[in-house]
Specification:
- The complex is a heterodimer.
- By secondary structure, chain A is of the alpha/beta class.
- Helix content of chain A is about 20%, strand content about 30%.
- Chain A has 10 helices and 27 strands.
- In chain A, strands 1, 2, 5, 6, 7, 8 and 19 form a 7-stranded mixed sheet that branches. In chain A, strands 10-17-11-12-13 form a 5-stranded parallel sheet. In chain A, strands 22-20-27-24-25 form a 5-stranded mixed sheet, with helices on one face.
- In chain A, helix 1 runs parallel beside helix 8.
- Chain A starts with a strand and ends with a helix.
- Chain B is α+β, with helices and mostly antiparallel strands.
- Chain B has 12 helices and 22 strands.
- The N and C termini of chain B lie far apart (about 45 Å).
- The chains are: A alpha/beta, B alpha+beta.
- At the A-B interface, strand 7, strand 8, helix 3, helix 4 and strand 14 of A face helix 7, strand 18, helix 9 and helix 12 of B.
Chain lengths: ~450, ~475
């Protein structure tokens, strides 16, 4: 079959893909194609009709569709091509894409660089293994969001929400505003997986009870949900006998986690980080396959779209640099791979309290700059210190008032620190957290104050 | 509507469907009555999906004979009908000396039942062909003829082909009572009376109820619930064969097996229950996990995508209950495991019984026993390009996990037994079977069903009657 060649192909036209394509175009790449499986650009933002988007990036409060449309409008003035209603069904490590659509049929495309921006999907009932019947009326929160916000249909009258991820919290409010009753939000962990502002604005403001350390232990009813049994769980998340309570409902929403969507990445033999579920990337957002970059929720699940935009702009810039370099040199000497054994890399190690970092490694062959490191903690920390160490020496430390797994954090490792590290021959940097003892007052290191969005609002 | 049928089959699971298929060869007028709103919704859709080799049933029983025959027939039949089938072979593991004795018994039984190719494997031989089995497994019985199949597609393909060849099917038609009109039977349903000369009871877990409508109670069905895990394709290669443990009085025990769709199936347990109980339980699932890791310790249950439960039509008889229980009335009852395997052989056997009982059979001149379904994901790029250029609907991927196109969804809505629910589409096209479990495609399938049948989305069902998905339109609700 005929193979069409492009400079850059972006897989996914949600917030990540839009920002990546736009940034690559601004850097001077003109032959860009976005492949989007839905009938319009914007991705999941289109069903997020609530506000709160863009506070960081646009310094104003937008709805999801408004946020998306800003980028769509900017792209309109560019030469970026968009293939809508088109599914990528295969990606190879040679950057070849097999795509299908009703309008253009079966096509094989090839690119000098590819940006993965497929986003994530919701975890369904299976992985959490909730026992009971299999009636209708069980939705993932995002599915319900699509039905209610985009298609205009109620999903039920009395709902219980399992999990307290952000979409579940947002849907608790949405269903309430649409006239349904939300009877409970049930979270197996002792803390919510969602943003603090969503707990306040979506549950507390509507008197919806949040049951922490609880889970649904049985779903009842057929053909439609008739109720759920919820139970308290112990420290090992096992239900405690005798704590069962029955809640009558006709709808169950699942908000039990998001999974980066990496089927295509795996098909292209891209190394996946088991902690994030996304590709391992370096500071340029390049994956283990050279010329394939990744950004947004396909790399790690973000809380705020603004950060997706920042990250994706970086990925777009990196991809553009590669493409322009190929254009200006006739040799293939720019190729390198971050898994290449001879490549000079610094691994970022997850120390105490850290569940993952992005990037996972720093490629020393890429021009060094200040590097933003995103991470999540694996439990709640009060007033605490983030340590950045190499060997036995501490390079940097940061202070935080509070850290929770539900809120993504960011630190910056500056270029000087990196150079120090390189000159000493370190090939690992460890990031860790310790909770401050109440009396500790030794702040000899530069401290960066972080304001979480919850505080802003 | 035919005034009087030659044969009425009660129940359209794998047994009713197999018999309908077999009878569709003849000029006989056949009707199948199914109480659910779709076919193959009972035991046929929720079981281990195994074509058993046949070493398990006691020699001399009808079960043994029909199991081995059915196993032989399945391969060709599935090829004819375009049903996913893979001959994986099966292993029964032994963990101690008692188990080894059981393997010897099974081996002898299998030989007596004429099961081809049975072999007892040493520990090393076992690990060579199935590296992920537990190190504590000391030997195994290997049965090369065992296979895996898509059970509901098997049943649907048989029934569809029967319908294509002239068999009538009535859905949502529960038989409430049966009257002997001396020269024919009258079957009372909610809306109508169906008349037929011959009646076949293929009512699965309800086959005793149907039997008791025309004859003295002779057996009792006590449904036995089996719960399962279905794991993601990332676990699909965990084992290469169907891996059993030694059977007990409760059944064939917990098995670990690849599926034809590329997943891993683990289960079942066995719990006596009522005819409606299809709920999974915490205890049941715990038991399955704990039992399964004895066979294959490396199974990653975190990769689970679905739990489900099915009912076995267990009876108080140690064999299938197959025979004439009243004049021109045939029971195909108590069809527990290996019922899926035996189904086509049961059908051939039942046709013989009907013939002996006076049913006239004359071959149709134009009978087509084959069926083809377009499976986009299995085509080459060139074939896909051709398909889309002929019909652009095949270019729109609706189910991303399983790469199922809108064209294939529409095919199921226009098939001889059209799907009209989201799960009906799922069983026919495979949409929603993957790791996101319909999270992405379900709203799109609701939209397609709504569009094609010209019904509002809130009338589209998930599965059985009453399983509505959407309530009213958000802007139409009275406050």
């Amino acid at each position: 079959m005929h193979v069409k060649i492009h400079d850059l192909i972006v897989i996914g036209g949600g917030p990540a893909g839009l920002a990546a394509a736009l940034s690559a175009w601004e850097c001077g790449v003109k032959d860009i194609v976005i492949v989007e499986r839905d009938k319009e650009l914007g991705g999941i933002l289109n069903q997020c009709i609530h506000n709160g988007f863009g506070l960081h990036y646009f310094k104003e409060e937008l709805t999801g569709p408004e946020y998306a449309s800003r980028f769509i409008d900017m792209l309109r003035d560019s030469s970026v091509q968009v293939k809508l209603d088109t599914m990528v069904i295969e990606l190879t490590d040679d950057k070849e894409l097999h795509v299908v659509s009703s309008t253009n049929g079966y096509e094989i495309l090839k690119a000098k660089a590819v940006i993965l921006a497929m986003g994530c999907r919701e975890r369904p009932r299976g992985p959490i293994g909730t026992p009971g019947t299999r009636p209708s009326g069980i939705f993932t929160a995002g599915q319900a969001q699509r039905y209610v916000n985009m298609e205009g249909y109620h999903v039920g009258r009395k709902a219980v929400i399992l999990g307290s991820g952000d979409i579940g919290l947002i849907m608790a409010r949405r269903l309430t505003l649409e006239g349904s009753e939300v009877l409970a939000c049930v979270e197996i962990m002792p803390y919510s997986g969602g943003l603090a502002r969503n707990i306040v604005q979506c549950l507390h403001d509507y008197d919806i009870p949040l049951y922490l350390s609880h889970t649904i232990t049985q779903i009842h009813g057929y053909p439609r949900v008739e109720g759920v049994t919820i139970s308290e769980v112990d420290d090992n998340r096992n239900p405690i006998p005798g704590t069962e309570q029955y809640i009558e409902c006709d709808t169950v929403l699942l908000s039990v986690g998001l999974i980066p969507e990496n089927e295509l990445s795996k098909g292209a033999n891209i190394a996946i980080d088991s902690r994030t579920g996304g590709p391992i990337v370096n500071q340029s957002l390049e994956t283990s396959v050279e010329g394939i970059f990744a950004c947004g929720n396909v790399v790690h699940v973000h809380d705020l779209v603004d950060y997706v935009t920042y990250e994706s702009s970086e990925a777009g810039k990196s991809a553009a640099q590669r493409i322009l370099k190929i254009a200006s040199s006739n040799s293939a000497d720019i190729t390198h791979s971050i898994t290449d054994e001879n490549a000079d890399v610094i691994q970022l190690i997850n120390g105490n309290g850290i569940s993952y970092t992005v990037p996972q490694l720093i490629d020393l062959k890429v021009k060094l700059h200040n590097i933003e490191v995103f991470f999540r903690t694996n439990r709640i920390f009060g007033k605490s210190t983030i340590h950045v160490k190499a060997g036995n020496s501490e390079l940097k430390r940061f202070k935080r008032v509070r850290l929770t797994p539900g809120e993504m954090e960011k630190i910056v490792i500056d270029e000087d620190t990196l150079r120090q590290c390189i000159s000493k021959g370190f090939d690992e940097i460890e990031v860790s957290v310790t909770e401050d003892p109440a009396s500790e007052e030794n702040v000899h290191f530069p401290v960066e104050k972080t304001v979480t969005l919850g505080e802003v609002l | 509507m035919i005034n009087k049928y030659d044969v009425a089959i009660i129940g359209c699971g794998i047994i009713g469907a197999s018999l309908a298929y077999e009878l569709s060869r003849y000029k006989t007028r056949v009707v199948v009555l199914e109480k659910e709103n779709d076919i193959c919704c009972g035991t046929t859709k929720a079981n281990s999906a195994i074509i058993h080799a046949g070493y398990d049933p006691q020699p001399g029983t009808l079960m043994a004979e029909l199991n081995v025959k059915g196993c032989q027939m399945a391969k060709e039949l599935c090829a004819d009908l375009g049903v996913p089938y893979r001959q994986t072979g099966s292993l029964v593991l032994a963990f101690d000396d008692t188990d080894m004795q059981t393997l010897n018994t099974l081996y002898r039984r299998g030989v007596e039942n004429s099961v081809p190719g049975l072999r007892l494997l040493s520990r090393d031989e076992l690990r060579a062909i199935e590296p992920e089995v537990s190190e504590s497994a000391i030997g195994a019985l290997y049965a090369p003829t065992a296979a895996i199949v898509s059970p509901w597609e098997y049943g649907i393909a048989l029934a569809e082909t029967a319908v294509k060849n002239g068999v009538d099917l009535l859905l949502s038609t529960e038989v409430l009572s049966i009257t002997d009109e001396s020269d024919h039977w009258s079957l009372q349903t909610k809306d109508q009376v169906i008349k037929a000369d011959f009646v076949i009871n293929a009512a699965g877990v309800n086959s005793d109820i149907i039997h008791n409508m025309v004859a003295e109670p002779a057996f009792k069905i006590t449904p036995s619930k089996g719960e399962y895990y279905l794991l993601d394709k990332s676990e699909g290669d965990r084992v290469r064969h169907v891996v059993f443990q030694c059977p007990t009085v409760n059944g064939k025990g917990v098995l670990v097996s690849p599926t034809v769709h590329g997943n891993l199936i683990v289960g079942p347990n066995a719990v006596a229950t009522n005819r409606e109980d299809l709920a999974t339980t915490g205890e049941g699932l715990d038991f399955i996990r704990n039992s399964a890791v004895r066979s294959v310790p490396s199974i990653s249950f975190g990769e689970n995508i679905r739990n489900f439960a099915g009912l076995r039509a267990n009876s108080d008889v140690d064999d299938f209950i197959i025979g004439i229980c009243a004049r021109h009335f045939v029971d195909l009852a108590g069809i527990k495991s290996p019922g899926l395997t035996a189904a086509p052989a049961i059908a051939v056997h039942a046709v013989g019984l009907l013939k002996d009982d006076g049913l006239k059979l004359e071959n149709k001149e134009h009978w087509n026993g084959t069926r083809k379904r377009i499976r986009f994901s299995e085509l080459t790029p060139e074939e896909r390009a051709q398909l889309i250029s002929n019909n652009p609907a095949y270019g729109r991927v609706v189910c991303r996990c399983e790469t199922i196109t809108e064209g294939e969804i529409i095919d199921t809505l226009r098939s001889p037994i059209p799907a009209h629910t989201v799960d009906g589409v799922k069983r026919r096209a495979g949409s929603g079977m993957g790791r996101c479990q319909g999270g992405f495609c379900a709203p799109r399938i609701v939209e397609i069903i709504s569009r094609e049948y010209q019904i509002p989305p809130e009338q589209v069902l998930q599965d059985g009657e009453g399983s509505f998905i959407l309530a009213e339109h958000t802007k139409r609700r009275e406050i």
